[in-house]
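User: I'm putting together notes for a lab meeting next week and I want to include a structural view of one of the chains we've been expressing. I don't have a solved structure, so I'd like a prediction I can at least talk through. The sequence is below, exactly as it appears in our construct file.
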Amino acid sequence: MLVNYSYHIWYKVCKVVRIKYKLSTNALLVLHGAYLYYTILNKSFTRFNLQNFVTYYNHVKIKYFVELLISKGYLIESGNYKGHLLYCISELGLQVINDLNKSYQEQLYIFCNKYSIEL
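Assistant: Thanks for the context. Below is the predicted structure for the 119-residue chain, given as structure tokens.
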């Protein structure tokens, strides 16, 4: 059931972070996917890896979001593997993720109190 609550509050969670960092909800979703990939597998990723991990966007959209996140300093190029650029999340990107997590906890608390939901 927690997944349903998470989906409901995703845009509320993102609102504060979107405004603070001037990123769209989709860019935040891709950045969060990059963070999860990097954290779970503990290695740099290509755009193709990220596309397969996030699964919602095609290669054109992933390319756009990766370039946007690099231009803003949230992702960095970390090398080259067989002709493919590798990326990892930067310290600034980690700060965005921490703010997302903080906002999520706050919004989940507000939502659960409002509707008398116990987790």
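A couple of points you could mention at the meeting. The first strand starts at residue 75 and ends at 81. The chain has a mean pLDDT of 92.

User: Perfect, that's what I needed.
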